[in-house]
Request: fold
Amino acid sequence: MKFGVVVFPGSNCDHDAYHAAHDVLGQPAELLWHKDTSLNGVDVVVLPGGFAHGDYLRTGAIARFSPIMPAILEFAKKGGPVLGICNGFQVLLEAGLLPGAMLRNRDLKFHCEHVFVRVERTDTPFTAAAERGQRLRLPIAHGEGNYYAEPEVIRQLEGDGRVVFRYCDASGAVTDSANPNGAANNIAGICNEARNVVGLMPHPERACEGTLGSADGLVLFESVLSSVART
Amino acid sequence: MKARVFVTLKKSVFDPQGKTIADALHSLGYTGVGDVRQGKFFELELDASSADQAKTLASEVADKVLANPVIESYRVEVE
Reply:
């Protein structure tokens, strides 16, 4: 199974994602330049973290117009698994592949720390190998992760079971003090209606080996590996 | 022609930066300042033959790129 990691000018977690797929998971992986127009036959697309185009205008706002985006939209439309991590999540929001937008963290601080998230749904290609309610200890590193959508959109996401990850405390309880950025309903990650496009603010690719302090993120990569193998 | 585009967070969206600025002003003693909303300001040089055409063009650009309609609204002025 081939992973494709998209590289925008300003991406800085592209090699972490590549390392997780290629070296930890042992799968073929390829870096895809944002000016490419083809996905080179990859089976899964990862939009990595970083500061694409310097986050000019708004996070992800310029990356949305990259030449590679039409190919990603087409891939997503056909049901191909797409994972947006942190800045990649922000790009998916700006591209309209996922609903909502990011506001500044409510305390205006850039948060760089490990947090806990709870897996709310296992019916996505990136959580199929996890257990519902499983807690993952993952790093976050963002200044704009305060997920916002109109109340009606939030109700729809909740009603359709499209909240995939939620910030929680060490015991798994979803509390306001466990919410690092003020995100609506402690939302850390969501999926699209077809469930093949997932975006999350925490960095699973930076938590795939014990030496990095946590290997909890590996389950996302293992999930997509088993999901794609099954289809 | 020149157009000015003012982008601000929608009224229904909390603006933590504006709130922090308001708090700072209050602590400086500016009790006459109420709420503060922070936004973005763009000046566009446009190739347009009339003010109407310039406004249409600037609005289209604001809709597509300058503002994110999920959280922001905008206002256009033509010079």
About this structure: The radius of gyration of chain B is 16 Å. The interface with chain A takes residues 9, 13-14, 16-17, 20, 65-66, 68, 70-71 of chain B (CB under 8 Å). The longest strand of chain B covers residues 2-9.
